[in-house]
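Summarise this fold before class:
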Amino acid sequence: MTLQLTKWAGLRLDRPLVMGILNVTPDSFSDGGLHFSPDAAIAAGRRMRSEGADILDIGGESTRPGAQPLPVNLEIDRIVPVIRALAAEGAVISIDTRNAATMDAALEAGGKIVNDISGLRHDPAALPLVARRGCPVVLMHMRGTPETMNDCAVYHDVAAEVEAELAQALASALAAGVKPENICLDPGLGFAKRGAQNVTLLHATARLAALGHPLLIGLSRKRFLGEISGEPYAGSRDPESLAAAIYAVTQGAHILRVHDVAGTMKALRVWQRLIERENG
């Protein structure tokens, strides 16, 4: 089925959408601990919205390489008060989780989108839940788990294999009853991909966008950008992230998942003005 990519999750796709990252965790790779208290997380969400974020992606479990699983009840306790407060103010909330119970609790609290790093494969209850709830979903490509994914970064042709595995996740979701217009795809940069593999996969953005669903690119502050620039500290990689994000949208990405909402919005405004002038 060929979709008319005009809207996703009720949001227009006539410009790139910005998804602000809000980690309610003590140990995420870039911003762990900054928004761990509900008050800090709510304040950060409000700031991102004022800066122009279209979506707030709220997560309570770190999925950085090597991260240990978090008990689901703790994940729920971390994020539900934040989701409830921000959703009540009109925010479009994405729930960054691989656990069905967390998805359900977050949707009940006002969340709208499920963003699952496992592509709805980690928890057997996740796929039927998303189908039943009829919510928009991001299917991300990953092999293994956060604990093991670096050992799974073995590819003959990373772009072809990620494309095929995303297509399999898409087919599984459709077969389970997830509506095609609710599905967004994410190649999972940094998840079971190492250095140059991420660059190769980013070069394949247009190819992945041709799968016919909105494409989310999440590369903000990731290690492979620091390997290119020589910046070892994740929190100092915003310039690299902006450069790569603009490249991604020129290749057909529809949604950017970012830490620096304000900087991304400024960069996109300049890019949009330039291409408007170029196109007359």
User: Anything to note?
Assistant: DSSP finds ten helices and ten strands in the chain. Residues 51 and 262 are 5 Å apart (CA to CA). The chain has a mean pLDDT of 93.
